[in-house]
C-alpha cells in the first residue's frame, strides 16, 4: 500500500472538517462562516482523495473535481450575497442580521441594532 | 515519506486553527492559503498529482482571489497586513518549501505511492461513467453564474454605481 497509512489521511481530513465546523459554529462574521464552509468542503474532498488512493480508483478524484466546481459556484453566490448584505446593512454580524424579525425581502430595512459585537 | 506527510498535516492543521481564530479577515485568508497548499502536498503524496494541482490552482488561486476581492470591496476595517502578520504564514510556508526542496533534491530517495491514479484515468472516468454528473455540474455552474450576476446587479443598484 502507499506509505501513508489510510487511517492517518482520514484522521487529518476529519480534524480539518471538525475545525471548519467549529469555525462555522463559533464565528459570527458571515465572511468567516463562508471561509469555514470552504474548509469543511476541502476536508471532505481530502477524504475522497484518501479513499480513492486507498483503493487505487479514479472515482475519488472525480468526486473531488465535482466538489471543487460545487465549491466554486457556492462561493460565487455566497460572496455576492455577502456583498449585498453588506451594502444594505453595513454589517456582517450574523447575530445582528438574523434577528428573527427581518422583513422578508421588502425594502424595509429594519436596522434595529446595527453594531453588535463583531467576532 | 511519512515525515513529509506528518509535516504537511501539522502545517495544515496549525494553519486551519489560525484561520478560525483570527479577527482580521485578511490574516485568516493568508493562513487559509497556507493550509490549502499543505493539503495539496498531502494529496500529492497520496498519488493524486492532478487533483493536487487543481487544488492549488482553483482553491488557493481562484477562490481565495474571490475572497480577497470581496474583502477589498467591503473595505479594510481594521486595516492591513503589517510585518508581524506575515511571520506566521511565512514560517508555515517555509516548512512547505523545505518539503518541496527535499522532495526535488531527494529524487529517487522519496518513495512513490504504490497506486498512483493518473490524470488519464481520471479523465476517462469523468467522461465515461460520470458523464451525466459532468452535465449536471455544468448546469450547476450556469446556475451559479446567473445567480451571482443577478445578485451583483442588485448590489450595483444598492450601492448606486451602475457601471460595474
What labels would you give this structure?
heterodimer; A: about 120 residues; about 70% helix; B: about 160 residues; about 80% helix; about 0% strand; flat
Largest sheet of chain A: none
Biggest sheet of chain B: strands, sense, closure?
A: none
Task: Give average pLDDT of chain A, whole number.
Answer: 80
How would you spell out the order of helices and strands of chain A? HHHH
Poorly predicted runs of chain B: none
Tally the helices of chain A.
Answer: 4
Largest interface here, residues on each chain?
A-B, 62 and 64 residues
As residue ranges, the low-confidence spans of chain A are 104-119
Query: Please, how many helices of chain B?
Result: 6
Assembly of the depicted chains: heterodimer
Radius of gyration of chain A: 19 Å
Q: Helix proportion of residues of chain A, in percent?
A: 55-70%
In words, what does this structure look like?
- The complex is a heterodimer of chains A (119) and B (164).
- Chain A contains 4 helices and no strands.
- With 119 residues, chain A is an all-alpha fold.
- Helix content of chain A is 69%, strand content 0%.
- Chain A is elongated and about 50 Å long.
- Chain B is 79% helix and 0% strand.
- At the A-B interface, helix 1, helix 2 and helix 3 of A face helix 1, helix 2, helix 3, helix 5 and helix 6 of B.
Record the SSE blueprint:
The complex is a heterodimer of chains A (119) and B (164).
Chain A: H1 6-26, H2 30-55, H3 59-89, H4 94-97
Helix pairs in contact in A: 1-2, 2-3
Chain B: H1 2-21, H2 25-45, H3 49-74, H4 83-106, H5 119-127, H6 131-159
Amino acid at each position: 500500500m502507499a506509505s501513508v497509512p489510510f487511517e492517518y489521511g482520514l484522521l487529518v481530513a476529519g480534524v480539518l472538517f471538525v475545525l471548519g465546523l467549529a469555525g462555522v459554529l463559533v464565528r459570527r462574521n458571515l465572511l468567516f462562516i463562508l471561509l469555514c464552509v470552504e474548509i469543511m468542503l476541502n476536508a471532505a474532498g481530502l477524504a475522497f482523495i484518501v479513499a480513492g488512493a486507498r483503493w487505487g480508483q479514479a472515482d475519488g478524484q472525480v468526486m473531488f473535481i465535482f466538489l471543487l466546481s460545487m465549491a466554486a459556484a457556492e462561493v460565487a453566490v455566497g460572496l455576492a450575497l455577502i456583498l449585498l448584505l453588506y451594502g444594505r446593512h453595513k454589517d456582517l454580524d450574523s447575530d445582528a442580521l438574523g434577528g428573527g424579525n427581518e422583513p422578508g425581502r421588502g425594502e424595509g430595512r429594519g436596522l434595529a441594532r446595527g453594531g453588535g459585537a463583531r467576532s | 515519506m511519512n515525515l513529509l506527510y506528518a509535516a504537511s498535516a501539522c502545517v495544515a492543521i496549525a494553519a486551519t486553527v489560525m484561520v478560525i481564530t483570527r479577527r482580521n479577515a485578511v490574516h485568516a485568508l493568508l493562513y487559509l492559503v497556507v493550509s490549502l497548499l499543505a493539503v495539496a502536498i498531502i494529496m500529492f503524496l497520496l498519488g493524486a498529482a492532478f487533483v493536487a494541482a487543481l487544488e492549488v490552482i482553483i482553491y488557493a488561486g481562484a477562490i481565495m482571489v474571490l475572497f480577497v476581492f470581496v474583502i477589498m470591496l467591503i473595505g479594510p476595517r481594521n486595516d492591513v497586513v503589517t510585518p508581524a502578520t506575515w511571520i506566521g504564514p511565512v514560517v508555515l510556508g517555509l516548512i512547505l518549501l523545505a518539503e518541496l526542496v527535499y522532495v526535488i533534491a531527494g529524487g529517487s530517495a522519496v518513495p512513490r505511492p504504490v497506486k498512483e491514479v493518473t490524470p488519464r484515468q481520471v479523465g476517462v472516468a469523468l467522461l465515461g461513467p460520470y458523464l451525466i454528473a459532468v452535465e449536471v455540474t455544468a448546469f450547476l455552474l450556469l446556475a451559479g453564474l446567473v445567480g451571482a450576476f443577478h445578485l451583483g446587479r442588485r448590489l450595483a443598484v444598492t450601492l448606486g454605481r451602475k457601471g460595474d
